[in-house]
Amino acid sequence: MTENDKKEQILTALEMKSLIKQNAYDQTLETFGLLKEVLQEIVKEYNSALQVKDPRIKFEYKERGQFEAQLKFAGDILIFSMHSNIFEFDRDHNIWKLNYVKENIIYSFCGIINVYNFLSDSFKYNRLEDLGYLVSRFFVNLENHFFVEGKRQKDYLYNKFGESVLSKEVIKEIVLQIIIYAIDFDLLVPPYDNIKIASVGQLNEKMEFAKTKTGKRLGFKFNSDDVG
User: Fold this and answer.
1) Which member of 27, 33, 92, 135 has the lowest number of beta carbons within 10 Å of its beta carbon?
2) Integer Cα distance of 228 and 106 in angstroms
3) CB atoms within 10 A of CB 210
4) Which domain holds residue 162?
5) Could you tell me if residue 156 is inside a domain?
6) How far is the C-alpha of 73 from the C-alpha of 76, rounded, in Å?
7) What is the mean pLDDT of residues 200-227?
8) Higher confidence at residue 11 or residue 67?
9) Is the pLDDT of residue 87 over 60?
10) Is the model more confident about 6 or about 90?
11) Residues 198, 202: Cα–Cα separation, whole Å
12) How many CA atoms lie within 13 A of 189 on its CB side?
């Protein structure tokens, strides 16, 4: 292969892959924009329907920049975070079994929107050691086909990739399931041995809680603690 052949091969591959990734990015960003709209609509709809008019439990939406949005309700916060890069799946992923991907590999390049569940007090009291949990993530390709990994998302798993298209209605359905899961996902008492020792400095500075990691679960994984 001559140098010119190599040059042509490199430029062609670079241009093709870059364009595919850029289109997938644009589609994911558009989806994230719709997601932000859905979150704001949920806040308005559900706050007006709350029977108990207590500011401590109302829904609140917060813009956290181009790639992040926050939904707070009662003691929970959901952080929706779009990654700015496009990803490919490892060769062991089940997505490669789908004819949709086998027929054209470009459909496998996806943007990702992660959803994390935190305790609202973690932000209120600036407890930097507290833990948040990945409870769901959206994968979106350049054709707006998608699938979802996470809790209570059985209708949108990878085997529907290539069939399901994201819309505001679908996004709302997914978000509501995430909210339900977060509400049911209760805070557990940390193991005694994890917190039985505190330093004088921690007590004097009133940092005993900030230095103790607080989170709803330890060892959280998608393939465990499965709730239908």
Assistant:
1) 92
2) 32
3) 17
4) 3-204
5) yes
6) 5
7) 50
8) 67
9) yes
10) 90
11) 6
12) 4
Residue 83 included in any domain: yes
Residue for token digits 């209708």?
A: 155
Residue 212 lies in a domain: no
What one-character-per-residue DSSP string does the chain give? --HHHHHHHHHHHHHHHHHHHHHHHHHHHHHHHHHHHHHHHHHHHHHHH-SS--TTTSEEEEE-STTEEEEEETTEEEEEEE-SS-B---TTSGGGGSHHHHH-GGGG-BEEEEEEEEEHHHHHTT-TT---EEEEEEEE-TTSBEEEEETT-GGGSGGGTTT-B--HHHHHHHHHHHHHHHHHSPPPPPPHHHHS---HHHHHTT-TTTSS---S-SS--TTSS---
The count of C-alpha atoms lying within 13 angstroms of the C-alpha of 21, restricted to the half-sphere facing its C-beta, is: 12
Instruction: Note the pLDDT tens digit of each residue in 116-173.
Output: 999 999 888 888 778 888 999 999 999 999 999 987 667 788 888 999 899 999 999 9
Q: How many structural domains does the chain have?
A: 1
pLDDT band at residue 213, thresholds of 50, 70 and 90?
Answer: low
User: Which amino acid does the sequence have at 149?
Assistant: E
Given a cut of 60, whether residue 212 has pLDDT beyond it is: no
**171, 86 in Cβ contact below 8 A?**
no
Arithmetic mean of pLDDT over the chain: 84
Residue type, 12: T
| Residue 62 reports pLDDT greater than 80 | yes
Q: What per-residue confidence (pLDDT) applies to 214? A: 59
Task: Report if residue 51 sits inside a domain.
Answer: yes
Give Cα 137 distance to the centre of its chain: 4
